[in-house]
Amino acid sequence: MRIGTTAPVVAVAAAAAAIANLPAASGMPHQQSLYNGYNGLAGPAAEFYDDSIPARVSHGVWSTLTSMFGQSHNPAQIIKTAPGVKMLDSGFPTADTDSIAAPRFVLYGDQDVAAQSYGAPPYWNITGFNVFNLAFWTVKFGVADNAAKFAAKSDADKKWFKSRYAGAGMKLMVSVFGATDTPQSMGRNATKLGKTIAAFVKQNGLDGVDVDYEEMDLFAQGKSANWLIELTRSLRAELPSPDYIITHAPVAPWFNKQMYPEGYAKIHAQVGNLIDWYNVQFYNQQNYDTCDELIWNSGDNFPLTSVFEINKYAGVPLDKIVVGKPAVAGDADNGFMRPSVLGGCLNVGVQNGWKAGAMFWEYPHMTPARLNVITSAAGLS
């Protein structure tokens, strides 16, 4: 912990103990100086609040605490440079890229949670996950749902929130489109759209974008691949790796080259190097609800689209195939697997060289406790 040098160390413990009894404080707003203040290093460095003081305290408590040390006008003194945290070119803090090395545990959030004013949960509510996708940015409806909640916050509020995620090794991203959006049907130019989405990502200090394209009819007609390839190239040109993440969330059948010659096998061949990983939807397909169908042999409905078949026949590296599942049975029409069963299935993959991780739709139904059951059984914890 780095507190002002004139404050006795013993006062820190006393202040922390007194936090629970502090009256409502008229705290200072989340000032930009919290992030721009000089931190004693030769050059700019990523900064975030010192987590030695419980993260759940209000900004008013932060203000009162700093006042106790005579630091009210020098808030940078209660900020530390954190290992594993850096700054994006947008000026927002982010976790180092090592934080999203496989296995990744990805959680989507579209459902409105009244007490969740930032659109995303506090980081301590999703322990074990390293990516949270705010849903959705759309063409048809604009910035919607939890993405809209986050975007509505001030820059200083967003930087404070991002600093918490960064310090916990978590990435905060936006998911675009979703099942009800029709960006291609609406005639949007993919290159221009990529620039627009990338601008939103940077303006809001987010760590990247998840492409959840679901225009099923166009995709079945073979009209989507080139559009998605163009979109991906545009996004990556604006959101360079490794600072920014680009993922796609296709349904598993779209990797079958025979059924979809203009599908995700083609997309991966063209721009797979620009996509960090795929949050593959192994649900809502009347399939993938047994270990064999999920891991080895997807069966007759959508052949050659299990994890290892996508790897073998579509050429996607195992470490880019993140297994997507509904958090609870009610989150999808089908494809749900109980946590212990799913974990056991994933362990078969782990024993054979797969460790990409898992994705879940959605928060708040998916919890750290459920994830722990899965990762423990899978051997990924």
TrEMBL record:
GO terms for biological process: chitin catabolic process; polysaccharide catabolic process. One of its GO terms (molecular function) is endochitinase activity. It catalyses: Random endo-hydrolysis of N-acetyl-beta-D-glucosaminide (1->4)-beta-linkages in chitin and chitodextrins. It comes from the Eukaryota. The keyword Transcription regulation does not apply. Keywords: Carbohydrate metabolism, Chitin degradation, Glycosidase, Hydrolase, Polysaccharide degradation. Pfam families: Glyco_hydro_18 (PF00704). SUPFAM superfamilies: (Trans)glycosidases. Belongs to the glycosyl hydrolase 18 family. This is Glycoside hydrolase family 18 protein.
